[in-house]
What does this fold into?
Amino acid sequence: MRAALLRTNGLDGLGVEAAPRPEPGTGEVLVAVEAVSLNQLDLNVIAGLGPGRAARLPRVLGLDPAGTVVQLGAHVDEGLLGRRVVAKPNIPCGGCANCARGREADCPAQTVLGVHRDGGAAEFVAVPARNVFDRHDVDAATASAIVHSLPIVINAVDAASVTAADRVLVTGAGGTLGHVAVAYLRHLGATVVAASRAELEASDGVERVVAHDAAELAQALSAFEPFDVALDVSGHGGIIAAGVAALGWGGRAVFCSASVDARLELDARDLYLNRKQVRGVASADFEHVRRALRLVQHGDIAPIIGSRHPLDGIVEAYRGFGASPRGKVVIDVA
Ligand SMILES: [Zn+2]
It folds into this structure.
């Protein structure tokens, strides 16, 4: 089969080449891949930095493949054969207390497809059967484009107990995660103020704030009534802190990324006296994935797909990843 194989760190070490077709192990399925998306984490794997250091090379990239189940390993429900599926990137251990109570996002022993094991930027990928989800009539590109982003957003919005009565600040709203966060919050009926570095198109019930850095954002937010919830997907410490400061009494802050800064500096007195809460939310539960796919299937939320490339164009797609237009970059494998 053809696969995007990273042999050595750096984009020069990545190429599309012939690789052995994987055999599904016990409890696994083999998926014939139709589409897979590019993610920030892939860049860490390619560079061998941060969470990407966990990848042993050579490694087939690809976190979020979607396709059709074509072969079953031992002890797998035969009904899965021929099923149109999408794979969840984070693979929980299945044996810990968090996994037992359906909190797969909080499994301390989870691994990631395309990082700890070969991923789906290939014609075939082997995945644990419990990590693939029926995508029904959702096309492979769309399913791949949302399976990593929308479930995390749903997890974060749940963690902040958002209701239709809440005023929610979304920071980092210009990116893929930001787009689905705003769409999901609007679907819930919440009032949304969306902050981003670049001007975004207007949409119903969403007020836009443009700020180029944390100081500019704090300044802009001082003109607003305090918020009930601040949801950050930017991963910037200063932006997260500006969101926490903009909360009112008992406000809840959640952030879904720490990709830019390791340090987060907060006013302890403001947090304590005003009964504010701050939580980081990483990954998602299986139930969040099922809910995300239902929302997309019913047309409630649609991802923005920025560009599509063939598998042979994946190295070029990574080269242009940072500069690509808004939306998910999808690789059409088949
Ligand atoms: Zn676990």
In short: The chain has a mean pLDDT of 95. The radius of gyration is 20 Å. The chain has two domains: 2-148+303-332, 151-280.
